[in-house]
Structure formats: structure tokens, C-alpha cells
Design brief:
2 domains, 7 helices, about 65% helix
Length: about 190
């Protein structure tokens, strides 16, 4: 028998979680971004062997994607954006957060809530990275190349070409009837 319940976090509850995040950041003071990423990766790996509710497990999957986003040289995340993602992972990397990670079944519940909050804040970064990864995979297949060799420049060029093709397609659907074309010439 499965039990289902809903956790609703109101705007009044958010300061409590922000304070918990601040405490995690204070405990992480002096650590490098790479140390935080390594600790988040290690915590993610260790969490995979634990018994936890599906709600929690599904949120933890985002950690792997966030770590990959920061470490993906092809994506080349800008320093400011990288900082935002590393800050979001700081709480997850802290084993002694609100509910210590070693507590059976519930140890990662607070982490799941924080990840859910972080995903909402980082949604533009997450969507852009997913778009980049999909393009890179498709482009590597099309070129018969290794996806690891394709970077941001190819992605931008591919997106530019895609947008221009869409522009040309729209041009034909918006054009007035007849064979009218602009009469000016560039010299």
C-alpha cells in the first residue's frame, strides 16, 4: 500500500529554507567550487544506494544534471551562471543539513525540497543546457562525430541557421501574392 501526501511550501516558509541555505554556505566557506561539486557528486552517488521515497529520488536526479552542466567544457557556462549553480549545490553537498543525510528514508527529503526550489530559480540555465545537449547529440550523429568535440560555437551556429531557415519559411507564408520583391540593391 502506497501513501501519498503533498508538501506545500508557502511564501512564508521560504525564509526558513533560505536561512538553511545560508547556514550551508557558511559551513562551506573556504571551499572551492570544485570541492563543492565533488562533494555534491559524492553525495549523489551515495544517495543512489539508499531507500527513499520516489518523490525524493526523482528530485535528486537533477543534481547529476546540475553537476554535469557546470563541468561541461563544451557548454562553457559563464562564471556568473556557474556560481549560481554551485551555490544551489552547496546545500546538497552538506551532509549535516536540516535532516542529516544518514537518517534512513528521510535523510534526503530536505535536499529534495531545496533542489526543487533551486530548479525553479535555475530554470533558464537548465532549459538552455538541455537544448544544447540535444543539439550536440543530434549534430554529432549528423556529422558522424564525437559529441564531446562539439561546443558552444557549433551550437550557436546551428541555432542561427535554424532561426534563419524559419525566417525564410515564414517569409514565403507572409509574402503578398504575386512576384513582388524589394527593388533596392546593395552596392
Amino acid at each position: 500500500m502506497a501513501l501519498e501526501f503533498t508538501i506545500e511550501i508557502s511564501d512564508e516558509d521560504l525564509p526558513f529554507f533560505m536561512q538553511a541555505m545560508e547556514r550551508a554556505e557558511q559551513r562551506a566557506a573556504g571551499k572551492t567550487a570544485q570541492q563543492i561539486l565533488d562533494e555534491a557528486s559524492k553525495a549523489f552517488t551515495q544517495s543512489q544506494g539508499q531507500n527513499m521515497p520516489q518523490f525524493v529520488r526523482s528530485r535528486l536526479a537533477a543534481v547529476e544534471n546540475l553537476v554535469a552542466m557546470v563541468g561541461d567544457e563544451g557548454w562553457g557556462l559563464a562564471a556568473e551562471d556557474r556560481s549560481r549553480v554551485v551555490a544551489a549545490l552547496t546545500y546538497f553537498a552538506d551532509p549535516e543539513d536540516l535532516i542529516p543525510d544518514h537518517v534512513p528514508v528521510l535523510g534526503f527529503l530536505d535536499d529534495a525540497i531545496m533542489i526543487e526550489l533551486a530548479e525553479r530559480v535555475l530554470q533558464p540555465e537548465i532549459e538552455a543546457y538541455a537544448d544544447f545537449c540535444a543539439f550536440r547529440s543530434d549534430e554529432a550523429t549528423r556529422r558522424g562525430a564525437d559529441a564531446g568535440t562539439l561546443g558552444r560555437e557549433e551550437w550557436l551556429e546551428g541555432r542561427r541557421a535554424e532561426l534563419q531557415a524559419r525566417m525564410r519559411q515564414r517569409r514565403t507564408s507572409y509574402a503578398p501574392s504575386g512576384n513582388w520583391t524589394p527593388a533596392f540593391k546593395f552596392t
